[in-house]
Design a protein that fits this description.
The protein has about 450 residues and is an alpha/beta fold. It folds into 3 domains: about 120 residues, Orthogonal Bundle (Fumarate Reductase Iron-sulfur Protein, Chain B, domain 2), CATH 1.10.1060; about 160 residues, FAD/NAD(P)-binding domain; about 150 residues, FAD/NAD(P)-binding domain (3-Layer(bba) Sandwich). Helices cover about 35% and strands about 20% of the residues. It has a 5-stranded parallel sheet. A 5-stranded parallel sheet has the order 8-16-9-10-11. It is globular, with a radius of gyration of 23 Å. The termini are far apart. Bound molecules: flavin-adenine dinucleotide and iron/sulfur cluster. The site of iron/sulfur cluster (SF4) has 14 residues, from helix 3 and helix 4.
């Protein structure tokens, strides 16, 4: 039987912001590790975008060698405590595990977290891999998973890396987007410290495109630039009422709560103005996070999603958690208008009922409105969490940077943009995606930058 992570009980956890998942005990981890077949040709590794040697680290856990298991993971993954917590393993390594045929794949995510959390108990020595080569300077723009990974891999190769971040704290979405109860900020700080310990210099409060232009970075002696500025531009529905008070983008709502610590008001003097009944629009991880944050702030919450549960793109664990916490799911429901009061505050959400039609280009069944089925949801706060687009500032400030129609930066197979020596990866080239795919891009871009510089950057 698959071992499941221990959790705070739902009734308790909705009253606090402490981490929901408590991880596996040693006994559970070793038992789960014993189920691994140690496949000769392990399909799970193929499912991992950063190609962790999964059977090898699982074997070390089985033998009680937790520290060595962590070292094995760190050969490939610079942010293991993050991935063990937020990767959609059910779509990646666990989907590829041979035991999936019997519907009980190894709980690889929980085992990764178990190994990674060793560092919370014992301080490990951060080993720098010196190469002895002449150091060139490389600039990395944006300190989310893509930027952190690229910076770490380049530092391990011997480059002198400066990581520029526009916010006052590093970590990208891990820091300002994903809430404390899912991604404790202590973990993110630990991972950032590890990357700094490799020699990466972090420059926060520095907005590339404003503080320095890309050309200025080359003038400062950087031989290559990696752009990892993410997808932080909120999308809206384009329905009437989106400019009313107490209508938030998920991005603003989560930044205020996580980064500005609104959940600790009055200890922090940065509260957030929300009413008593919140509607969150969307069905992905971002929407689930907004809903569960609102619950913890003591509000009644409805999650409004235009398809059914089956099509929800959020992580399976987070959907289950939200259900246990009693978020009210309004499936097959499409908002058409936000209704305001005489003072300009939201006071209701007009919706229309949907039914599922033929599959669309994403393969999911397309929602179709049911005629004359409009109804009003009694809410006084609306949070729009229907997706994010790539951050536009840098591309606007850099006219020679080629972009695609959807605003993503165009790159070749080596992650190089239209400007020689300027590379890009993560959500800025794919649109909103996952932590592990951003990390995979950071890793492959670091290898490409290394080749580019060694082949003689001008
Ligand atoms: P980001 O993490 O967005 O980092 C970009 C960084 O660049 C930011 O720190 C930004 O401040 C900085 N920046 C932007 N412009 C500039 C500039 N001009 N100069 C300097 N710095 C700049 N994925 C999962 O796999 N699992 C999950 O459970 C999950 N949950 C999520 C929940 C939320 C609320 C959100 C918003 C996303 C979630 N994701 C999840 C998606 C995942 O977080 C992203 O795909 C991932 O963070 C992308 O990494 P990135 O490095 O490309 O960009
Ligand atoms: Fe173990 Fe599954 Fe990977 Fe085989 S595919 S090595 S059983 S985790």
């Amino acid at each position: 039987m698959r071992e499941r992570v221990r959790q705070q009980p739902a009734g308790e956890r909705i009253k606090n912001f402490f981490e929901v998942a408590l991880g596996l005990s040693q006994e559970q981890a070793e038992k789960e590790a014993s189920r691994c077949l140690q496949c000769k040709d392990p399909s799970c590794v193929e499912g991992c975008p950063v190609e962790i040697d999964i059977p090898a680290f699982i074997k070390l856990i089985k033998e009680g060698r937790r520290k060595e298991a962590l070292e094995k993971i760190k050969e490939k993954n610079n942010l293991p405590a993050v991935c063990g917590r937020v990767c959609p393993q059910e779509d990646q390594c666990e989907a590829a595990c041979v035991l999936n045929k019997k519907k009980v794949p190894i709980n690889i995510g929980a085992l990764e977290r178990y190994a990674a959390d060793y560092e919370l108990i014992e301080k490990t020595e951060n080993r720098k891999q010196k190469t002895g080569q002449v150091l060139s300077k490389v600039a990395v723009v944006g300190s989310g998973p893509a930027g952190l990974t690229c910076a770490a891999d380049l530092a391990k190769l011997g480059y002198k890396v400066t990581l520029f971040e526009s916010l006052h704290l590093a970590g990208g979405v891990l820091m300002y987007g994903i809430p404390e109860f899912r991604m404790p900020k202590k973990i993110v700080r630990n991972e950032v410290e590890y990357i700094k310990s490799l020699g990466v210099q972090l420059e926060t409060d520095t907005l590339i495109g404003r503080t320095y232009a890309i050309e200025e970075l080359f003038a400062q002696g950087f031989k290559a630039v990696f752009i990892a500025t993410g997808a932080g531009l909120p999308q809206f529905l384009g329905i009437p009422g989106e400019n009313l008070n107490r209508v938030y983008s998920a991005n603003e709502f989560l930044t205020r709560v996580n980064l500005m610590q609104a959940y600790k008001f009055p200890e922090y003097s940065t509260p957030i103005n929300i009413g008593k009944k919140v509607a969150v629009i969307g069905g992905g991880n971002v929407a689930l996070d907004c809903a569960r944050v609102s619950l913890r702030l003591g509000r009644e919450v409805s999650l409004v999603y235009r398809r059914s549960r089956q099509e929800m793109p959020g992580r399976a664990e987070e959907i289950e958690n939200a259900e246990e916490e009693l978020v009210v799911f309004k499936f097959l429901t499409q908002p058409v208008k936000i209704i305001g009061d005489e003072l300009g505050f939201a006071k209701g959400l007009e919706c229309i009922q949907m039914e599922l039609g033929e599959p669309d280009e994403s393969g999911r069944r397309r929602p179709v409105p049911v005629k004359n089925s409009n109804f009003i949801l009694d809410v006084d706060t609306v949070i729009v969490a229907i997706g994010q687009s790539p951050n536009p500032l840098l591309r606007k400030a850099t006219s020679s940077l080629k972009v695609n129609e959807d605003g993503t930066i165009a790159v070749d197979e080596n992650f190089m943009t239209s400007i020689p020596g300027v590379f890009a990866g993560g959500d800025i080239i794919t649109g909103a995606d996952t932590v592990i795919s951003a990390m995979g891009a950071g890793k492959r871009a670091a290898a490409a930058i290394d080749r580019y510089i060694k082949e003689g950057a001008k």
